[in-house]
Amino acid sequence: MAESEPRPSGMPTNRVEALSDGVFAIAMTVLVLGIQVPDGGGADALSARLLSLWPKFASYALSFVMLGVLWIGHHFQFQYIRRTDRALLWWNLIFLLAVTFLPFATGVLGNYPRTRLAAVLYGSTVFVAGVCLLAHWTHATKKRELVTPDLDDTVIASMRLRITAGLAITGVGTALGLIDTRPSVALFVVLPFVYLVRSRIDTHVARRK
């Protein structure tokens, strides 16, 4: 780099992205370890034992998709984030803290699918992860030297809106968990489908390739 060129602000993001991808990979793998393989009994009893595990299978599938949604949101942010600073590092670490806790919340929900506290614990974990992801994006875009020059305000607003919409659904689902777990879990199931809808972010990223 020539001496006349300004030194870019912040630090590179390669180690942050590597750590985040590794944490997501481990969290997704740990999810299935919470399902104990049926042991004992004959072949005739296997179907009954597998059927009795359906709450754990359901919570595993839900959480795997939920982690996928969080990873995609994080991945899209780093399509535009090119540098990081200390505050952004901490927001990312707190976000990963919620990600690594999700397998535990999943296990609790799988073991106690009709218990209100289990639904509230699960929803709260997803909600905290969403709040951290929103704070992560807000901080990065507030300090424009951390993001790419081609990031416009419509993409910033679109990303913020999508995260906020997810937080609203998660918040309602968590609150419903205080009353009845069935509508609470139903909203958690609906949440990933919100992110299947293409947005301006998808179009903008596609144009940049």
How many domain modules? 1
Which consecutive residue ranges, at least 5 long each, have pLDDT under 50? 1-6
Largest sheet strand order: 1-2
For the terminal residues, how far apart are their CA atoms? Answer: 26 Å
Mean pLDDT: 89
Query: Count of DSSP helices?
Result: 8
* Computed structural class: mainly alpha
> Largest sheet, described in full?
2 strands, antiparallel
Globally, the shape reads elongated
What this model shows, in words?
The chain has 209 residues and is an all-alpha fold. The protein has one domain (11-208). Helix content is 74%, strand content 2%. It is built from eight helices and two strands, in the order βαααβααααα. The protein has helices at 14-33, 43-52, 54-77, 86-111, 116-142, 153-176, 181-194, 200-208; strands at 11-12, 83-84. The chain has a two-stranded antiparallel sheet with strand order 1-2. The longest helix is centred in the middle third of the chain and has 27 residues, at 116-142. Residues 1-6 have low confidence and may be disordered.
Quickly describe the structure:
Helix content is 74%, strand content 2%. The protein is mostly helical and 209 residues long.
Outline the fold blueprint.
Elements: E1 11-12, H1 14-33, H2 43-52, H3 54-77, E2 83-84, H4 86-111, H5 116-142, H6 153-176, H7 181-194, H8 200-208
Antiparallel strand pairs: 1-2
Keywords:
209 residues; single chain; disordered N terminus; mainly alpha; 8 helices; two-stranded antiparallel sheet
